[in-house]
Amino acid sequence: MYAASLPEQASPTSRPVPWRQGPRLGRRQTWRGEKFRASPRLGRTGLAIGIDIGGTKVAAGVVDGEGRILCEARRSTPGSDPRAVEQVIVELVDELGAGHRVRSVGIGAAGWMDLDGGTVLFSPHLAWRNEPLRANLQRLLRRPVLLTNDADAAAWAEWRFGAGQGESRLVCITLGTGIGGAMVMDGRVERGRFGVAGEFGHQIIMPGGHRCECGNRGCWEQYASGNALGREARILASANSPVAQELLGAVGGKPDRITGAIVTDLALAGDAACRELLDEVGEWLGLGLANLAAALDPGLFVIGGGLCSAGDLLVEPARKAFARNLTGRGFRPAAGIELAALGPNAGLIGAADLSRVSGRMRR
Question: For residue 193, what are the contacts with CB-CB under 8 A and spacing of at least 6?
Fold first, then answer.
């Protein structure tokens, strides 16, 4: 388990800024009278490459010790062939490393990792089953490689540089192809006893509901993800509903072309049907967060991932549903719900930073 040996943090003193404004650098963050940035236990120098492997894209960037991306590149995720994914990673590292002195490479991958951080045990969206990914990549890259779950990487980035700075018990939710989740508790990424904590997207929220790639039915990510948004929009458009005419027009009358991103863009442009679809996804999001609050009692939920480009159109319905479904509502403090500050780059920033500081962290 990656665990920073840090003292207990103080409570947050301010709320995050929208991610488009970038990392909040230079903020004084203290516990026991010490500056966070003065702590000798976390490495702050040198460059690292962070790579975020998702179900549809591989994003990479050179990241400095303050969480800033100096340059970046992207590729499509090459189907389900593990060797092809490795080759894409090699190409990205060669491309980005050509002009920089890079010390290490951090890989944030969608899947469950073993506690040693060397093997992808299972990925619901990629063909990884007990895949020794770290050893394969270290052989190919000839650089130190850190392998972690992509949601863990994003949560670490938000805690270090983004919306979660100063929060001692942070839960990060990433909304994209599915739903990822991670926890940073008292300065450490909490991965659970077997290394697979944080798979919040696979909590069963509707027994007997939609089939999920993980094999179960009714998982949360089937109702509150980008894929869920696109699916519901396709159903509405396929029925040739009068409220879906603008949506159909945007895809040339072909419902199968509708994606969550298209729905989000139309909602931001004011389309009523797409806003209603986002509102429904937001309600499912808030319900799942209320379940997590009952179990984990965090101080803050940070919501990231591509779907969060919808902003308040997604988060406001989530906040309302959260307040309506929270156990003990009215008689307990409630966690905050905020948008991530680092946007879709949180995963690669966190993976790079973890690879940089891992030598100064204990397992």
Answer: none
270 backbone φψ class: left, alpha, beta (φ>0; ψ -120 to 50): left
Closest CA to 224 of 128, 301, 334: 301
Query: Is the pLDDT reported for residue 6 higher than 60?
Result: no
Region of residue 43 (left: phi > 0; alpha: psi -120 to 50; beta: else): beta
- Which pLDDT tens digit goes with each residue over 213-268? 889 999 999 999 999 999 999 999 999 999 999 999 999 999 999 999 999 999 99
Secondary structure of residue 232 in the 3-state scheme = helix
Q: Which amino acid is at 259?
A: T
Tell me the whole-structure pTM to 2 decimals: 0.80
- pLDDT tens per residue, range 294-344: 999 999 999 998 899 999 999 999 999 999 999 999 999 999 999 999 988
CA-wise closest residue to 233 among 262, 268, 212: 262
What are the distances in angstroms from CA 228 to CA 204, 217, 231, 232, 306?
A: 15, 13, 5, 6, 13
Q: How many residues does the chain have?
A: 363
Ramachandran area for residue 259 (φ above 0: left; ψ -120 to 50: alpha; else beta) = beta
